[in-house]
Amino acid sequence: MPSPRRVKVFGLMVLLTILITLYLTGSARQTRQSDFYRKTQESLEAREYEAAAKQRDETNVKARLKAAEDEAKKHAEEKGQKYLDSVSGERSVAGRVKMTPDEKDKGVPGVANVGGRPNDHEAVLQEGETAEDHEVELELNAILKKSPIIIFSKSYCPYSKKAKHILLNMYNINPAPFVVELDQHPLGAKLQETLAKSTGRRTVPNVLLMGKSIGGGDDIEVLHESRKLEDTIKSMGGSRIIDVTRTTVRLNPDMR
């Protein structure tokens, strides 16, 4: 049986424990009811709300950017596809200037300001054809033999510069496109007239692929941005195109 002294000590310990518990409970209650505690809790809750709102805003912005990017890509692809559909029946520089299989094998890659007539080409006038018209015909035939891709351009034209930059700098094409600067060519005006009649395009640039016009500067840009230019060159160029690959060079914003 415990002694009275031990019972007394035990009782004091129990009483002290109860008093400490009551004190701590009351202090905690007072702390929660204090202005400092309330303001701290409100500040923490506000920060949590702001963080959640910021995260929602960032998620919404990313979703909107992704939607805009998808829409722009879809628009570019649709525009490129419409253009490809339109050029599928495009008129070539046909009839008198259409290349024969033997002539196709004589293509010479390169870039130059003017073309040139073969020295061994016999000048035979067609009925009702003037000497000047025949000269233009011979020159155009000679130009078309230079490369599967001919860029009829004008040196000062910004759209021509854009088409040339895309085809000459942003792609490695073999044989390389051949450039004819109509403003520097002695028959430039007549060549442009002939191209207008045979391809339906009077303006420059006028890019011919295998004798067919695939458009001007904006059209080439659409095909490039929709990533259809490489396939278009390969499919229309056939065996005449040895290789075509896209480079890392980007389109200069000033050319847009």
From TrEMBL:
Superkingdom field: Eukaryota
Residue intervals of the Glutaredoxin domain: 149-214
Coiled-coil stretches: none
Basic and acidic residues bias locations: 68-82
Pfam families (UniProt xref): Glutaredoxin (PF00462)
SUPFAM superfamilies found in the cross-reference section: Thioredoxin-like
Keywords from the named record: Signal
Keyword Phosphoprotein on entry: no
GO cellular component assignments: cis-Golgi network; fungal-type vacuole; Golgi lumen
One GO MF term: glutathione-disulfide reductase (NADPH) activity
Residue ranges, annotated region (Disordered): 68-87, 100-119
Signal peptide: 1-28
InterPro entries attached to this UniProt entry: Glutaredoxin (IPR002109), Glutaredoxin_euk/vir (IPR011899), Glutaredoxin_subgr (IPR014025), Thioredoxin-like_sf (IPR036249)
Biological processes annotated in GO: cellular response to oxidative stress
Cited PROSITE patterns: GLUTAREDOXIN_2 (PS51354)
Family: Belongs to the glutaredoxin family. Monothiol subfamily.
Name of the featured protein: Glutaredoxin
Natural source organism: Amniculicola lignicola CBS 123094
